[in-house]
Amino acid sequence: MVLKQQLKTLLRKNDLNASQLARKSGLPRQTINDWLAGSPPRDVRQIKKVADTFGVSVDHLCFGSAEESESKQTDLSSLLGDEWIGGVFEMKIRRVKINK
Fold this sequence. Notes:
This protein is mostly helical. It has helices spanning 2-13, 18-25, 29-37, 44-54, 58-63, 66-80, 82-88. Helix content is 68%, strand content 0%.
């Protein structure tokens, strides 16, 4: 699980332990310990608090570094091309008459 790995890395990088992170973020210590053990988060707001505490995005905390995501996006757009992506957003709108 990426959250578990990112959390451990950020704790090590910021020289914190789970109890200190819990105090700084305002979350129960058990919640942090559960995430470190590999349990999935139950509330996105809790993830947001931890991300804000570390000064990173929720995306970075849950899915890895922004650099990895950026390179994947560049590769995908070069494979698909601009015309194909534009075609995804086509839609038709139909008027419907309502009888009262």
